[in-house]
């Protein structure tokens, strides 16, 4: 099990990082500037810095990290400290799992999506030809440190990216939590984070850890955490050069996959409209052209959850209850995206 620690002050962050006698910090340009540079490190501390962004979550960067660990003469007692968002936690965990067949690592997530979702559960990975998380392993960090003050350094699009995953947690597992999230204030297209927001982060962590503790290698129930991601990942791959965030693509996927649930007769119209209204309240419509729908739907055929040539999707029975391993057709995928496009255009 991973120990999770919540801290309130920058001095605790500095103390945590410097408690390791044999460690290497992995960060990207953003987390170095906004987080690492704020503290005084031990003179023996070593740092690996990579370029920021999803496009750098690849084999080339993974090889660079492992070579740097070797150059630093890291050994099996070395701890890799991942300081950053979901990309850093994903690729850092994978590098730690591969280097010398495995060294310990800790996660210090600095984005909302990493705090509430990506840094928990033990999934690590990199993208292959822009296909999401095609290479990876399951490997748990020994510790995860949550310092919500880092959220103040984020652009609003990254706050929203994490909020999409939090909404997903409520939709698949806890209706009351989902409804509480809907009370989050938004002004001028900006999500306002108040003193109670930390409780939401804790609740999302609890939901994810409860699910993954019972299905670590994603054989059944853990698959529900992929709700919104079958179509969401296809959109993220398709729009990779337009820098669409993971969260806005997943938010779109949530509406589309809820729509399929509705058309299948699984989800009632009231719950569907509640989900749809939640997404449209917090997210601007993702602009999709009619001629793009065919190629986007084709990308769902490459989703790693699929079996054989069937598209495996997560559908919703009720808000708070999800179904996994549901086979859907490419035509259903297209219809759901067409619905999303029309509703966004209106």
Secondary structure tally, helices? 13
Secondary-structure element order, as H and E?
A: EHEHEHEHEHEEEHHEEHHHHHEEH
| CATH C-level name of the largest domain | Mainly Alpha
Low-confidence stretches: none
Oligomeric category: single chain
> Which structural class do the helices and strands define?
alpha/beta
Give the integer mean of the pLDDT values. Answer: 96
Strand content: 15-25%
Radius of gyration: 20 Å
- State the CATH superfamily name of the largest domain: Dehydroquinate synthase-like - alpha domain
Count of beta strands: 12
Report strand order across the widest sheet. 1-8-5-4-2-3
The termini sit apart by 48 Å
Q: Main β-sheet: number of strands, strand sense, barrel status?
A: 6 strands, parallel
- Shape by Cα distribution: globular
CATH topology of the largest domain: Dehydroquinate synthase-like, alpha domain
Work out the helicity level: 40-55%
Count of folded domains: 2
Mind explaining what this structure looks like?
The protein has 346 residues and is of the alpha/beta class. The protein has 2 domains: 3-152, Rossmann fold, CATH 3.40.50; 156-345, Dehydroquinate synthase-like - alpha domain (Dehydroquinate synthase-like, alpha domain), CATH 1.20.1090.10. It is 45% helix and 17% strand. It contains 13 helices and 12 strands. A 6-stranded parallel sheet has the order 1-8-5-4-2-3, sandwiched between helices. The protein has a two-stranded antiparallel sheet with strand order 6-7. A two-stranded antiparallel ribbon has the order 9-10. Strand 11 (311-318) and strand 12 form a beta hairpin. The longest helix is centred in the middle third of the chain and has 18 residues, at 156-173. The protein is globular. The termini are far apart. 45% of the residues are buried. The model has no long low-confidence stretch (mean pLDDT 96).
